[in-house]
Amino acid sequence: MHFSSKTNYAFTLVELLVVIAIIGLLASVTVVAVNGARAKARDAKRHTDIKALQTALQQYYEDNGQYPLSGGSVRLDDWSASSDSSWNVLQTALAPYMARLPTDPTQVPYGTSTWAGAGAHLYSYYSGDMFAPCGDRQWYQLVYFLEIPKGPDPGGKACKNGVTVFRYGGTGANTAIKTLTYFNK
After folding, report:
1. What are the CA-CA distances from residue 136 to residues 6, 86, 140, 156 (Å)?
2. Which domain of life is it from (predicted)?
3. Which range of residues forms the domain containing residue 152?
4. At what angle do helices 86-94 and 13-64 cross, to 10 degrees?
5. 19 in a structural domain
């Protein structure tokens, strides 16, 4: 008779399940961290886009003495929104100052969202004579949406001495909607 001293080494089913569970947990933590980093990157791009748009608007003002009319019409309450064709009208006005107007990184296709929609991600611009005492097109408002609410909505008055405050993001400590108002006079 011959006895072998060889021993079989193998993983038990329980050990395999524990290893799979640990790998699954690590993968889910990684996905959450990556998604958070992506949202922060998109929000950073939004801030950069708005700054670039503000620069182009200021250059337009310096050459024309007023900001471009929003909405592409003479209606008092027309906004230009990156989710519809009114953005093309603003693009035409700002073409000498900006090759292409930015759009939100997660924006839905044209015509499927409005700037006031819940969860809408787009850029909106207004300048007109809705508040004539302020000076026709001597001011503008930009509204944009963040994925990660951070800081209050700065808001702004339609006129430097005006009473009406526009704060589309509300008055909370951390808001996702940001309203920027700029006056030139």
Report:
1. 93, 19, 10, 17
2. Bacteria
3. 13-183
4. 60
5. yes
Share of residues in the chain with pLDDT > 70 (%): 79
Count the domains in the chain. Answer: 1
CA distance 23 to 47: 36
CA dihedral 154, 98, 94, 57 (to 10 degrees): 30
What is the number of other CB atoms lying within 10 angstroms of the CB of residue 153?
A: 21
Q: What is the pTM assigned to this prediction?
A: 0.77
132-163 pLDDT, tens digit each: 556 677 888 899 999 999 999 988 877 766 77
Q: How far apart are CA 75 and CA 89, in angstroms?
A: 14
Asked, for residue 44, whether it belongs to a domain, the answer is: yes
